Amino acid sequence: MAEGERISGDDYRVTPEEIARFHDEGYVHLPGLLTVDEVGELAEVYDRFLRREIEVPGKDYCDMAGDYGRNPEDYSIINVMLPRRYHPDWAGNVFERRAASVAAQLHGDGMVIDYDQLLAKQPHKEDAVFAWHQDMAYWPDTPDTNTATLWLAIDDSTLENGCMRFVPSTNHEPTIRPHAPVFGGRGESHALGTQLHDDDLVVPVPIRSGDVTVHNERVMHGSGGNHTDGFRRAYILAFRRDETVQIERQLGFTHSHNDNIEVLEDVGVNGESR
Q: Are 210 and 32 in contact (CB under 8 A)?
């Protein structure tokens, strides 16, 4: 199927083979979710966040490759949590609309945005490494864990600038692997990480600007450093069932890095020492 044939307004057609791959391996690459012009429009707002023209308070603007005390000019992975909260005009943009179509095809009706996130690896940052992890390690237990996290490449995402890497089918393991804070305790940083097994198969997934990878809540993934002259910008939307999001919010869990650490401990987030 030609890429242009997949898009019809706000809808994007996912093939039966891609749906099966998502559920079997825990992730799938979908080409051409957005056009060049659509990516360009998003990039204009994205860069306003990077230049801090749109104010993001507290720890929701932080470095995912270091502790909270690092100076912003030294950040290796600029992380902006919940950008639609801090720039409400972005809500309902073309990525959100077309991503909703994908989430519905993968999991059925009732999928809504749980959170959004921007992750930008700065040029020549070998330490811009996102530790191996499973997303469920960050989140509270809920009856329904079905998730479709769309990772949009604003720039071409390559082996050299730190593309996504997956360990296929780890979503079928019976339990989440043990996770621990990467840079001290959760009061010092947000990133969690776990270890690869000797027999884990690591699959890098380079994608073009406008493409997405979509992964579920249990598959192991991470990414390497940026060894190039340019940014590696990614825009993430995570969809979960409306009932699941309501449970999280009732527990006081918002995906904000400004969440009170004591609240997170009470919720009992997976994979952390309590």
A: yes
Domain boundaries, the chain: 3-267
Residue 187: per-residue pLDDT: 67
> Is this prediction's pTM over 0.85?
yes
d(CA 58, CA 81): 10
Please report the beta strands in 122-256, taking only residues with DSSP state E, as ranges in sequence order: 130-133, 147-153, 164-167, 180-181, 192-193, 203-205, 212-215, 220-223, 232-241
**DSSP states along 80-97:** EE-HHHH-GGGTT-HHHH
- Which ranges of the chain have pLDDT less than 70? 1-4, 185-187, 260-274
* Closest among 129, 145, 105, 147 to 221, alpha carbons compared: 129
CA proximity to 82, closest of 253, 269, 262: 253
- Written as one string, the DSSP assignment of 28-61 is EEE--SS-HHHHHHHHHHHHHHHTT-S---GGGE
Query: Among 225, 224, 222, which Cα is nearest to 213's?
Result: 222
What CATH code would you report for 3-267?
Answer: 2.60.120.620
Q: How many residues does the chain have?
A: 274
Distance CA 37, CA 71 (A): 34
| Cα-only R_g, the chain | 17
Q: Is 60 exposed, middle or buried (0-12, 13-18, 19+ CB in 10 A)?
A: buried
Let me know: does 78 contact 118? Beta carbons within 8 Å: yes
